[in-house]
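Lay summary. Proteins are chains of building blocks that fold into shapes, and those shapes determine what they do. In this project we predict the shape from the chain. Here is one chain we studied, written as its sequence of building blocks.
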Amino acid sequence: MASSEKRLFLLDGMALVYRAHFALIRNPIYNSKGMNTSAVFGFINTLLDILENHQPTHLGVAFDTKAPTPRHKIFPEYKAQREAMPEDLAKAIPEVKRLLEAFHIPVIELDGFEADDIIGTLALKADQEGSFHTFMVTPDKDYAQLVSEGTTMWKPGRKGSDVELLDVPAILEKWEIEHPKQVIDILALWGDASDNIPGVPGVGEKTAKKLIKQFGSVEALLESTEQLKGKQKENVENNKEQALLSKTLTTIILDVPVDTTFDQLLLGTRDDAAIQSLFTELEFNSLGKRLFGNDFRAGRGHSTTSAGSLEQADLLQAELKTFSDFKTNYQLVDTPEALTKLARNLEKQDLWCFDLETTALNPRTADILGIAISWKAREAYFVTPNPSLSLEQILTTLGAAFKSSATKIGHNLKFDLSVMLAQGADVAPPFFDTMLAHSLVDPDQRHNMDFLAESILGYTPIKLSEVAAENPSPDQESPGLGDDLFSFAEKKKTKKKDFIDMTAIPAKALTNYACEDADITFQLAEILAEKLDESGQSEVFYEIESPLLPVLVRIEHEGISVNKDGLGTIGETLATKIESLTKSIYQQAGKEFNLKSPKQLGEILFGEMQLVEKPKKTKTGQFKTDESTLSTLAPKHPIVAEILEFREATKLKSTYVDALPEHICPSDGRIHTHLHQLMTATGRLASSDPNLQNIPIRSEAGREIRKAFIPRGDDFTLLACDYSQVELRVMAAISGDQAMIEAFQNDQDIHSATAAKVFGVEIDEVTRDMRATAKMVNFGIIYGISAFGLSQRLGIPRGEAGEIIDTYFKQYPAIKDFMENTIEQAEQDGFVTTLSGRKRVLRDITSRNGMTRKNAERAAINTPIQGTGADMIKHAMIKVDELLRTGKYRTKMILQVHDELIFDLALDEQDELVPKILEAMQSALPLPHQVPAKTDAGTGNNWLEAH
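And here is the predicted shape, written in a compact code that computers can read:
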């Protein structure tokens, strides 16, 4: 490419905003006004990468319009199956266009033509003009047909990967063709599920490439069908017109009457004032700093505090404050005399904040570098061990304050409390964790302290990187970040290059950094306490989440023992099974392939073996091979059943058998999982590092893994106490359905009782199949199962499944009323609540998109049920923990898994203690209508036996 050549970048705006929106669909970005800004953020990020790193001279962005195209005229079903654009995305597109206007970048759109037609036309003109090299920026594979010596496809990377530049040689290699135009022929045979282009039945990507490689074009293939054989010949001959139609549909139009000139696409100066205003409005702080430097302050939120009262301030337009804007009283405490004075003052306070700076993220191996303490805005103290002041002296002198009845404030307090416990210092409640409080007040937002400081206080905290020297040692754990990230799991994602040696930070700088954390957290607590009241979440916070905090600290500290040798034996068994399954699958497929590749697996099952006539495809046109799809085929095709077995065996081996030994703590030989209180929308606890909640109980391999978890000693056994059908009991209680309530009050098997009513037989006449069907319906109803969904799960016609559901609702009419009323109330309120008052906001409950709305409706039904179950076991954990501590029992609660609590049970306490634990669980959260909460208990020499 000549140095004088002009560089024209043509962006497929619609494809890029879709890509950005769905790339962040699991963790969307919302600003303080509740707008989903994921698509705008992702698009501008891509744009800035091009502007900063790829030297464009000319640039334009093409968009589709709603008007029909020539493709719709010849094939009305073109793109007809597509769901309506998500509302969040529809709202984002005008913001993208506003930003492009501020960048002085033309938006090109023309009714009747798609973005690829516009880009194809302009790229061809640029080729003909001769002085341009054009880069088509898009993830859409269809553009490959436009690649030429002067036109390159610029494909954005995924999840941080590099951009893929596809020139003519790359396209020829990738598509196995002689000319880029043959991409059209391959697409015509292959079809495109996302655009509803039919293609030829039974012809996938691989087969299409082979056919075009052999015949050169669709037309040549259709003239030579006598060279084909069997089903393939039949499919091609019977679908000639469809193949030619598909070729027309996949051909990008190159003569669009677009009047945009290259002079208009010439990159000019941007309107910085307009961009800054829009970045401020959208709250794009990081992008603003990227463009305008660290002085840029977008601001977030709208509330601040003054003289202890909540006031409103327009922080979106105001500049964020920093450390230099305030006079602070941050003091280093490094002598016994100063420490004693601090302790006396601290003991007089009713509430105060503390924050640890540590050398590691593992609470059991971390050393404390210092403790920051604050009980007044702009005032804080940092206590550090030194030759004249040991850590033991510090903890002893401050011990009375830590054990007092004062409220201790912190951010991600579980980390700090865990470190203190590991040092032998038990901190007494009550607690106020600002991270937990904000998670209840605004669950869709981020919860790290820097974000809260900016969004609530209008203040940007000191960055650790600004005051510390980087530590290049690859073996150093990332220290001192206990308050900066939402969870321990997220903390571990810190990159090695970012590790910081806290001990290298000058005392004054570290004092300011640590004291500011405690000071800001103290200020946040006051505001968040009011926000908890305003949002109606105070009871959940003070009665459930705050008391649960030290319980989780103790559970994590105790850990659970594991038989490492037993895991090794299980690993050998699984390895043998995986090898055997692999051989069998290859034999049935007639060839070897990458079993872990969904693409290759789909081509084998549906392209070559043609297990079904009309296989499902993903939006990218790939055959679907997810668990749900394969599970419906497993009963009919042995190879599919073995593939599912292979997947489970490999997952269990890698996730548990191979990984669990790495999590065994050297000092006590136990595994210490991390339990997260508010990571799920329903309030259920989550487990990580390692995740001990997802070890399957129904599979043989899963049960073998549970055998490896054992008691802590010979005078202990494992005790498992499990709520029986808690979600169904909750559903009966909150719906008030008398028939279901009576079944539970009479201690009947609920699935048999349901089967008797649905099938119109006596309960003792219920067959095993009837009960299984009733069980599927009982649990399916909680998740809003449809007739189609039930038919898929039971393998019965949809009509029959619909009749079962109808009969179910006739027998349990109050449950249907509950579901309808809950959805109606959610539409009015925009949220649902559990019996304890835990709130879940449902942004999409009134969405015009049918699928999106249905998902929100299912969440509306499920959340009060599953969330109340989650509240119940949290209450139970608090009660049981108090029982064990006040009774000074040796028995320890060591794990929570969904509706089950696991204990290291001292054998000499078994007879006395087990009934007390069961009673505490059963009375933890009384259900309406006197629906009993039932718990079962089991003991054993391993977890499987106990369960």
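What the prediction tells us: The chain is about 50% helix and 10% strand.
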